[in-house]
Specification:
By secondary structure, the protein is α+β, with helices and mostly antiparallel strands. The protein has five helices and twelve strands. The N and C termini lie far apart (about 60 Å).
């Protein structure tokens, strides 16, 4: 008879995903709102017996995880996703001494103040987007709390001052050099802090990052700035952000091309393409990614390897 084979659990964790919470600050007649989408993960070796023996003694029910999100929301100002993520992992680790680690990922759904007759409304808001603000916090037992931030779905376009020339030739190359094209991309910036455990002004850091990205990508309002490739623009954006925001240690930028095909069929139907009519397409999409750090060396952040969610395709990919 064959020998009895032993099986063991290599790793396990549980938690709750997709918890949505909205908080209204009514401390003045001019209200503010913050809406978050929360994922919680908790880890404990004590929970292994729930899998192997059906013993739930150390299982924090996923419903309890959900309820805890609302409980912590009551006392946390929730001014940024980073602040709320920190508060969540700190609460779980303080409340449940048998946990070895807790992770929280918090995505902010943006609202902007409504204006009526050009005046900002005290308690009226319009959904803003599609840009997302994401924070990840992790706190291991006996270790330091770490926070990582993400700016996602920052979709930008410029209609001139961009080209792509002198790239490598091969038998499969069909793309011609161009000094005039549309450059559009869906920016995803993942950044880590010089002191991951320190409670920074996360909203201020994010504003500085977005301002640096915007200023570098577009250039001055009238004349703009020329971009010879997404790669060169990506690097300049990261450097500008690191120079402007000293709290940030490294930035991973994922900038897939949003492609627009020149509508050259106009030349065959009695009209003329003059860099004015383009065909937005979806896939395939160019993928450009780099991690930029202070000084030399450094480890990449969590790689942005997922396919771009809002990519469309263009005739001049980098």
């Amino acid at each position: 008879a064959p020998a009895t084979m032993a099986f063991s659990i290599a790793r396990h964790r549980h938690g709750k995903t997709g918890v949505k919470v909205l908080k209204v600050n009514r401390s003045s007649p001019r209200h503010t709102v913050n809406e978050f989408f929360v994922n919680i993960k908790v880890y404990s070796p004590e929970c292994e017996v729930a899998y192997t023996k059906g013993d739930n003694s150390y299982v924090i029910a996923t419903d309890t995880c959900k309820n805890t999100v609302y409980y912590v929301a009551k006392t946390c100002p929730m001014e940024s996703p980073e602040q709320f993520a920190r508060a969540l992992v700190e609460y779980f680790m303080k409340t449940y001494p048998f946990l070895t680690k807790c992770d929280a990922e918090v995505t902010e759904s943006l609202w902007q103040r409504a204006a009526v007759g050009g005046v900002g409304h005290n308690h009226g808001f319009l959904r803003d987007g599609p840009q997302e603000r994401i924070a990840r916090a992790t706190l291991p037992r006996g270790g330091s709390l770490e926070v990582e931030s993400v700016i996602a779905n920052m979709i930008v376009m410029k209609t001139t001052q961009t080209g792509f020339e002198g790239f490598h030739d091969s038998p499969q190359r069909l793309l011609a050099d161009t000094s005039e094209r549309i450059l559009a991309t869906n920016i995803r910036a993942t950044y880590q802090y010089v002191d991951p455990a320190r409670a920074y002004d996360y909203a201020g850091v994010r504003r500085g990052m977005i301002e640096s990205f915007t200023r570098t990508f577009f250039g001055p309002p009238v004349e703009g700035v020329y971009s010879p490739s997404v790669q060169e623009t990506l690097y300049k954006m990261a450097v500008a952000a690191l120079q402007a925001v000293p709290q940030v240690a490294s930035i991973e930028l994922d900038m897939p091309n949003i492609h627009f095909l020149p509508c050259r069929l106009l030349d065959n139907v009695g009209s003329k393409f003059e860099d004015d009519v383009f065909i937005p397409t979806v896939y395939p999409a160019g993928s450009i990614n780099a991690v930029v750090v202070r000084g030399a060396g450094g480890a990449p952040t969590r790689a942005a390897t997922a396919a771009p969610r809002a990519a469309a395709s263009e005739g001049e990919p980098d």
